[in-house]
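Field: sequence (string)
Field: structure_tokens (string)

Example rows 1 and 2, in order.
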Amino acid sequence: MSVLSIVIPVYNEKNTIQKIVDLVEAVKLVDGIDKEIIIVDDGSTDGTRDILSKIVGHKIVLHEKNKGKGAAVRTGLKEAGGDYILIQDADLEYDPEEYVLLLKPILNGRADVVYGSRMLGSHTATHFYYYLGNKLVTFITNLLYNSSITDMETCYKVFRREVIKNIELESNRFNIEPEITAKVLKKHRIYEVPISYSARGFDEGKKISWKDGLSAILTLIKYRFSD
């Protein structure tokens, strides 16, 4: 039996954490693959931890203080023991029902890394500047790494275990996304599949800002010329 490890970084998501866990639990994968759910709470202070304390049957790791999404992702990756590893945000913008779609190219031997692209699939409208920023960092990614992906900042990234486990990651904040992509593209091609996306606004808890976009660009440049 193969295992898909699902890493869920969480910070102050009391309104969505139970729902996303329920959705991930309910997902039916292909025969022969089981699920491992790893939740990393990054120092939540809004009551998220009270909800997590009632969730059983999954691996839950608590950071003593808030370190950033990258730190939570890195902790989750270290804890993951599956043959395949997937990153899942806790904010309900991404649909776990699409796991099978994401896994298919890997299971068919066509890819070692799969990204779910919001640009290729259906999605709700998001802020224009947020959309433009994503297009810009994706363009810079393709320019620097001679690639042709459409959505560098996507949450849905799936890897064969040996791919992500052999990459040493350093980022603690949202720049974990460009760092992963930069280091993957140095050794692997990324296979994209279209996914749906239900954007939420900043008034609903969205945390990324223009500063993270600038950080992403600097991170892409940094790892283009260093390890």
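Row 2 begins here:
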Amino acid sequence: MTVKEMFDAADNEFLKFDRIKNPRHPRPDICAFLMLHELVPGTKDMVTGARHDEISLSVTAYELEGCLTPEIAVDLHRCGVRYSEEWDCLAMFV
């Protein structure tokens, strides 16, 4: 499955943070950032841009290939992370 397909498959779990077992942080956005950092460690800012009520994230689909699983995609989606076709990146509403 591609990164986009994994997020599409998790669509019915969007913002259902209470379903995450052992979240890394009690705040959904921080939890998502920590999960992404574990998958793709780095030192650059997690947020790369903002437009209206949406932020784009620095972790790319290319970087997630091979390390993202459907289960992790579901938990990220539960935190509010989604795949933006418009921006071709991971994004979150603010």
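free_text_note (row 2): The first helix runs from residue 3 to 9.
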